[in-house]
Amino acid sequence: MVRLRFVADGMLGKLARWLRMLGYDVKYFNSLDDEELIEVAGSEERILLTRDVGLYQRASIKGVQAFLIEGKTEYEKLAELAKRYSLSLEVDTSNSRCPKCNSNIRPVQKEAVLEKIPKSTSKFYDEFWECPNCGKIYWQGSHWKRISRTLNRAAEILENKQ
């Protein structure tokens, strides 16, 4: 199966992080101009995600696959993408990427991260993932409920659009 790959413009940093958690390879730049974004998308066969109608039109004219994001909230944006590209709105940690740097995260033994996490975290959680590139440690902490709510809300919007 060919995995979709994206490049997100500077207005879509949060969406890029969501897509990375869902396992999608998303390059994000907040400093490239429109022509550079179109070049990255075209040369790397990535789908350009943007909220900028002009950028969307220029990419399309140049034959670069682009998607114009119209939703206001993160759930609306995720639902739009899920509808258009049949994306799964469930986090599978075996495929997740680092929301910060886009590298694939990998499971890591609790003992290996004890020095890198808060003491209270080690009391309550046993499963951890680490980014081999930036070293960030992840676990399904209290924020996980918020993540699940957002993804569930996006799935509800998607269901209502079907």
Task: Describe the fold and architecture.
The protein has helices at 13-21, 34-43, 53-61, 74-85, 110-113, 119-124, 143-161; strands spanning 5-8, 25-28, 47-50, 66-68, 106-108, 128-130, 137-138. It has 162 residues and is an alpha/beta fold. It has a domain at 5-85: Rossmann fold (3-Layer(aba) Sandwich), CATH 3.40.50. The strands form two sheets. The protein has a four-stranded parallel sheet, with helices on both faces. α4 crosses α7. The longest helix is centred in the last third of the chain and has 19 residues, at 143-161. The two termini are 24 Å apart.
What would the keywords be for this entry?
162 residues, alpha/beta, Rossmann fold, three-stranded antiparallel β-sheet, 7 helices
Summarize the structure.
With about 160 residues, the protein is of the alpha/beta class. It has 7 helices and 7 strands, in the order βαβαβαβαβααββα. Strands 2-1-3-4 form a 4-stranded parallel sheet, sandwiched between helices.
Largest sheet: 4 strands, parallel
CATH architecture of the domain at 5-85: 3-Layer(aba) Sandwich
Order of helices and strands: EHEHEHEHEHHEEH
Number of helical elements: 7
Proportion of β residues?
5-15%
End-to-end C-alpha gap:
24 Å
**How is the CATH topology of the domain at 5-85 named?**
Rossmann fold
List the helices and strands and how they pair.
Blueprint lengths: L4 E4 L4 H9 L3 E4 L5 H10 L3 E4 L2 H9 L4 E3 L5 H12 L20 E3 L1 H4 L5 H6 L3 E3 L6 E2 L4 H19 L1
Parallel strand pairs: 1-2, 1-3, 3-4
Antiparallel strand pairs: 5-6, 6-7
Helix pairs in contact: 4-7
